[in-house]
What we know:
By secondary structure, the protein is α/β, with parallel strands linked by helices. The chain contains 14 helices and six strands.
Amino acid sequence: MKEIALIGPTASGKSELALKLAREHEAYILSLDSLSIYKEIDIASAKPSADELTLVKHYGIDLIHPNEPFSVAIFEKLYGELKERCLAEKKNLLIVGGSSFYLRTLLQGLSPIPEYSETTHKRVEELLQDLPSAYRLLREADPLYMTGIEPSDRYRIEKMLLLYVQTAMTPTEYFKKFPPEPIIRSLPIYEIDIARETLRGRIRERTYKMIGSGLIDEVCRLEHTYSRLPNALKAIGIIEVFDYLDGRISKEEMTEQIITHTAQLAKRQQTFNRTQFPKRELLDAKEIYIKASETLLL
């Protein structure tokens, strides 16, 4: 079994390239997309089409509902199970997507997390009734670690509170005592190099296609089923539609905002990839196809 990672900014052409490579080299695809994991978020996440999903087996897509929690630990488990399947079925594996945080986790690993008692859960629920105070508690105990967490980040504050209450150790102390172990120790990583103007054009084209395919109706259905509270419904392509539905912006403004915000996301993704994966190969799609094909044939 051979495995490679294919990364790049949103709308850079990763899915098309991965599909071609997977079909030609007997591979499964593991999606790194943080929105495609949710069922019912189909248009806003720009998931592969039904036809594409039947051509090649994709994993990491349609795993949970928008109101259900997802974590990197779940993704790590999914990768482990899929790797075993690839080995058993003699398939290659393509790890593909724009949410490279998950890929970094596979390369760096996760520290083991303790089981939390019912008492711990109850105490943390009490502390979270006052989020600013809960944040201050952690900040005073571990100022170094908490500088990386925003005071409004309830999800991460809750995770650190659970750890702190259960173990009586600060996050810094705990992660020093239980350092992460890499899940993948060696992995060829290819990033699609694409000109800014070309990428902007692809983002614009995709945005028009999403809106024409029923993005607004999809967001209305999601709101009706789940309200606007789930974090999944705060994603780019959804929050702008909410503003349009509320009458704060016109449809044209909604469209332009989605394009702008997506382009800004793409820039952040490129920065993350550059800083977190210095050994990646930055090539255009044709060059990646040639090199990746050679790697998968070795």
